[in-house]
Design a protein that fits this description.
By secondary structure, this protein is of the alpha/beta class. 33% of the residues lie in helices and 20% in strands. The chain is built from 4 helices and 5 strands; from the N terminus they run βαβαβαβαβ. Strands 4-3-2-1-5 form a 5-stranded parallel beta sheet.
Length: 120
């Protein structure tokens, strides 16, 4: 792949428009042959749970679950902030495809070569 790209997402059902657009952009980055990571933090970690995004559908976009499934199928990676995940008492056995719980050092390593990152 030609380069890397990161989308940091700190919302979920508290701002479904931003959550949806984040995965639209992440899929576009994969389509542009970028090694792409979505980093879920604060409220965004809820999206790591199977079934959570099933009823989110913003007008003019594919349903969020479909965007997330497409991202996973295209081998995108979802990194889930471990402290944020633990704080919210979520289920590590219920992660969506492509997701893994990590500490901040994993994100720092991914970004350490100057990889661009946008935040939603």
């Amino acid at each position: 792949m030609a380069g890397k790209f990161c989308v940091s997402l700190n919302c979920a059902k508290d701002n479904t428009d931003r959550a949806t657009v984040a995965f639209v952009v992440a899929n576009a980055a994969l389509g542009s042959e970028k090694e792409t990571v979505v980093f879920l933090t604060t409220e965004g970690v809820h999206l790591s749970q199977r079934g959570y995004a099933d009823d989110v559908h913003e007008d003019g976009f594919l349903p969020l679950k479909e965007l997330m499934d497409n991202f996973a199928e295209a081998e995108g990676t979802i990194l889930v902030c471990a402290p944020c995940f633990r704080k919210r008492g979520l289920d590590a056995d219920n992660l969506v495809d492509g997701a893994r719980i990590v500490g901040g050092a994993v994100l720092v390593e991914f970004l350490s070569d100057g990889t661009p990152c946008i935040t939603y």
